[in-house]
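Project standup — Tuesday

K.O.: blocked on the structure for the chain from last sprint. Re-posting the sequence here as requested.
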Amino acid sequence: MRLHLLFFTLAMALPITHATAATGSAPLPQLRAYTVDSSWLQPMPPLQIADHTWQIGTANLTALLVQTAEGAVLLDGGMPQMANHLLDNMKARGVAPQDLRLILLSHAHADHAGPVAELKRRTAAHVVTNAESAVLLARGGSDDLHFGDDITYPPASADRIIMDGEVVTLGGIAFTAHFMPGHTPGSTAWTWTDTRNGKPVRIAYADSLSAPGYTLQGNVRYPQLIQDYRRTFATVRGLPCDLLLTPHPGASHWDYAAGDNAGAKALSCKAYADEAEKVFDAQLARETTGTR
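H.V.: unblocked you, prediction finished:
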């Protein structure tokens, strides 16, 4: 009985102790929203890239619509709040929600896969990606290797898991997946052949090659990060690539606001990889010397 009374006395005292400690503590931190440059959210009308390929995203985020005889394919979707804008641009191109058949992803960060859950719900399109991106997509971007839970979005499930070199075909257009890990473990380039002015044009939609704020050396969550980037630079140089596009257009020197001249200064795949590797090497050198 005495032992029971002792436990009861301690239990009654604990809330008072905790309340007293909490009163003198600093406030808990505010939640941080994922904010981006306004140009990433600037709507723009559809911009024709090739006979069947259109940029329907925003001024500084790529979302590519490829129209085929059997329905449409969307490559990336931008930020979570872009779903209505994308559907409006699809409508402007004569694509009804039910006509969107496939959604292909470059990688599963919030600024490219953000509206996938809503688009899938409103169109019934099938999401196609690799296993690495499918895991991050299902978590809505949480527990990211580099960003933790800072850039989350509504989670979505993949309908088809693809392998490196696998081909996805719709309406006679074949999209080939090329794994290019680095920016994320699931980063992917997609290539397909369209036409312009009656001639075939090999389009490469190559994922980001940047490492924004990443720990490159001795990264415990991604031990082979440097080696993956090196292999990826070589992969991008070897893509079938008459015309290069990237998730962030500026990375490949596109300027969507320039209209018909949007791709006037666009890089080749080789130049894109060369330029990115120089930036990567400089970042690695700064990390090695402890400078910024």
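K.O.: great, moving the ticket to review. The mean pLDDT is 93. The longest strand covers residues 188-196.
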